[in-house]
Amino acid sequence: MTSTDKPAVAIRVWDPFVRIFHWTLVACVLLNFGVVEEGEDLHQWLGWLASGLVAARVVWGFVGTRHARFADFFPTPQRIRLHLQAMRRREPDAHPGHNPLGALMMLVLMALVAALGLTGWMQTTDRWFGEEWLMELHEALANGLMVLAGVHAAAAIVMGRLQRVNLVKAMITGVKRWS
């Protein structure tokens, strides 16, 4: 190692609950969007599971481990501004947990899943069954979720390369390693 090399840093960030939540939610969304036919029982069960996962993650955001708590990463306007300024200056802005933009995306994605759960449930009730606008809203929310999930995945790869940390691997192992 030369004097300009920095040693690798490893931090245990994502607890098992967060990792299981993340990958189970990914599976629910991908199955419901691309494999299971809408209206099938499995589609509804996967929607219920996804909604339950989001509800559990919200609770975990208040009582969970340090980096799972919203207080650790909540994307305030100031945190977002400082993060964007550091990015513009190409300065390192390492965050053990979510960076402010990642946190914002996570919250938006969870809100979309919750809205899908609500609009999906509404379609099963006598009051809202067969309402065209509700079906269209549900579909638009699903499409928006897929677009933003794609942006989220791409951003994790790009930011991981810029920051020299494998963010996908970190979501599997729970450990972030900066090189």
UniProtKB/TrEMBL annotation:
Entry membrane topology: Multi-pass membrane protein
Record key words, sorted: Cell membrane, Membrane, Transmembrane, Transmembrane helix
Keyword Coiled coil: no
Subcellular location: Cell membrane
Keyword Membrane: yes
All copies of domain Cytochrome b561 bacterial/Ni-hydrogenase, residue ranges: 13-174
InterPro entries associated with the record: Cyt_b561_bac/Ni-Hgenase, Di-haem_cyt_TM, Hydrogenase_cytochrome
Domain of life: Bacteria
Membrane spanning residue stretches: 20-36, 42-63, 101-121, 141-162
PANTHER family registered for this protein in UniProt: BLL0597 PROTEIN, NI/FE-HYDROGENASE 1 B-TYPE CYTOCHROME SUBUNIT
Protein name in UniProt: Cytochrome b/b6 domain-containing protein
Lineage of producing organism: Bacteria, Pseudomonadati, Pseudomonadota, Betaproteobacteria, Burkholderiales
